[in-house]
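subagent[fold] <- orchestrator: predict structure for attached chain, return tokens only, no commentary.
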Amino acid sequence: MKNFVRANKGFLMFLLLFGVFRSAVADWSPIPSGSMRPNLLEGDVVLINRMAFDLKIPLTQHSVAHLGEPARGDMVVFHSPQDDIRLIKRVLALPGDLVEMRGDRLFVNGEGASYAVLGEARERSRGTLVDAVRLEEQVAGTRQRIQVLPGVAAPRSFAPLRVPAGQYLMLGDNRNDSADSRVIGLVPREKLIGRAERVLVSAAYQEDWMPRLDRFGMSLRAP
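subagent[fold] -> orchestrator:
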């Protein structure tokens, strides 16, 4: 064993530093589902800023300092409070906010979102092609592209909810095909991993594996 370590110490040091970097500074995450369409596509690989919110001890989830707070509209990667699976969703309500949804329309602190139609598309949902309506949503100082699937059975309303301290309401941009806070509940701050900053690379893995060059380096921050 000592001979192996001595012969491979450079490579082993690289692996250690690589693990430290990924666990504490920056990471990447492939997108496996369509819950963030039309903004994130299956086959995108997203860069995650792990220092956006916390300074953590490398190779652990233990935070030693808060460095920032999620902003409404951020795309955030976190561990699901339901089963600890890593997810990516958009922060739509912050601690203290009063939030509700009525028939796909979001309300934050009494302000109803406004929507402008951007176009229509055919999307795959639960193995079936369905009609999708793409919208620009503006609410509480944020603006994001979302889509709704009128023909899909989905939770389209929830009662007014005051978000407790230290928790966040997360929604998928593909509003009628996303297991978000309407399913998994509010997300505690300690479950946050980092903020999604941009698409590193992208490939159409469900089709022909061709790279989507126009998506390489695409920013995910609000304009």
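orchestrator: received. Logging for downstream: The chain is about 10% helix and 45% strand. Helices lie at 2-7, 9-24, 181-184.
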